[in-house]
């Protein structure tokens, strides 16, 4: 089997894991790669295997087989960002358990304003993987629809009324947040349930601290997610994922990613 050797190799995210964001995901990976070297090859996740040898892997991969391959490379001393070991821990049900055990603020399981049902075995792949249910009857119906699709691992949380905030982080030195209703950049229509942002006052440092604390728990270098800020300024993390598109701050984020990689290389 012919081995292909590179100094730095970028692994693209498969389209199934980039619903409505394929171009944005590839843009941040490409820009980050270009800031490291003018000749970083990029390979489709579906084509990646052990024959691709490099010193450094910039990976947005999520296929279980790809993750296992990246883990093997890491155990051999290769630099992999994001770490396969970290991405493996990013299923929603596992993150939910970790946030509970580490007392990271999440919505309660019961409430009076409806519920959110989310697939727990993997990251969102289509709009139907996250469903708002106005009451318990709607929740039961949605669970049945998940089961009909073969999804048995589910996470349920109460709906929290407040502002939706999207956040992005790289290591310990880059953190930004935005209100999706301000710029109308939205992947699905889920933000419409909360309506227009009121920009409630809140402790921004606390959001950054708790998001970074969760990233540290799973050793994730590049991350993003969503939070709700209620009218009292309380914060609840409702989503967390590996290597988002950074579409609102791509240039800044790419510079932070390139610096993080360079630091690891040194």
Set out the fold topology.
Blueprint: E1 4-11, H1 22-36, E2 42-43, E3 52-59, H2 64-75, E4 79-81, H3 84-87, H4 92-101, E5 115-119, E6 130-133, H5 136-148, E7 154-158, E8 163-170, E9 174-178, H6 180-183, H7 204-218, E10 222-229, E11 235-242, H8 250-265
Parallel strand pairs: 1-2, 1-3, 3-4
Antiparallel strand pairs: 5-6, 5-7, 8-9, 8-10, 10-11
The radius of gyration computed from the alpha-carbon positions, rounded to a whole number of angstroms, is 19 Å
* Separation, N- and C-terminal Cα atoms: 31 Å
Poorly predicted ranges (pLDDT <50, ≥5 residues)? none
Mean pLDDT: 92
The main pleated sheet reads as: 4 strands, parallel
Helix content: 25-40%
Write down how many β-strands occur, each being a DSSP E stretch of 2 or more residues.
11
Shape: globular
Determine the strand fraction and express it as a percent band. Answer: 15-25%
Order of helices and strands: EHEEHEHHEEHEEEHHEEH
Number of helices: 8
Derived structural class: alpha/beta
**Widest β-sheet, arrangement of strands:** 2-1-3-4
Tell me about this structure.
The structure is a single chain. By secondary structure, the protein is α/β, with parallel strands linked by helices. It is 33% helix and 24% strand. The strands form three sheets. The protein has a four-stranded parallel beta sheet, sandwiched between helices. Helix 1 (22-36) crosses helix 8. The longest helix has 16 residues, at 250-265. It is globular. The two termini are 31 Å apart.
């Amino acid at each position: 089997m012919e081995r292909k050797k590179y100094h730095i190799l970028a692994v693209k995210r498969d389209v199934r894991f980039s619903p409505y964001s394929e171009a944005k995901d590839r843009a941040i990976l490409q820009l980050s790669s270009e800031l490291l070297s003018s000749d970083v090859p990029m390979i489709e996740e579906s084509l990646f295997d052990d024959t691709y040898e490099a010193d450094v892997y910039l990976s947005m991969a999520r296929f279980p087989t790809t993750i296992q391959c990246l883990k093997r490379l890491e155990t051999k001393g290769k630099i992999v960002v994001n770490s396969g070991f970290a991405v493996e821990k990013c299923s929603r049900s596992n993150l939910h358990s970790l946030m509970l055990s580490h007392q990271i603020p999440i919505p309660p399981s019961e409430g009076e304003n409806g519920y959110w049902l989310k697939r727990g075995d993997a990251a969102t792949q289509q709009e139907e993987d996250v469903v708002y249910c106005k009451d318990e009857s709607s929740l039961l119906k949605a669970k049945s629809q998940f089961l009909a699709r073969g999804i048995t691992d589910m996470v349920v949380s109460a709906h929290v009324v407040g502002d939706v905030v999207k956040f992005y982080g790289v290591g310990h030195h880059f953190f930004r947040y935005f209100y999706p209703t301000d710029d109308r950049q939205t992947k699905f229509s889920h933000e419409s349930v909360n309506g227009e942002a009121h920009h409630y006052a809140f402790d921004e440092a606390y959001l950054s601290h708790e998001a970074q604390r969760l990233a540290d728990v799973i050793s994730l270098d590049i991350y993003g997610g969503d939070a709700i800020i209620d009218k009292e300024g309380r914060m609840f993390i409702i989503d967390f994922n590996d290597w988002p598109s950074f579409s609102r701050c791509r240039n800044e984020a790419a510079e932070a990613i390139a610096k993080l990689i360079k630091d690891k290389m040194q």
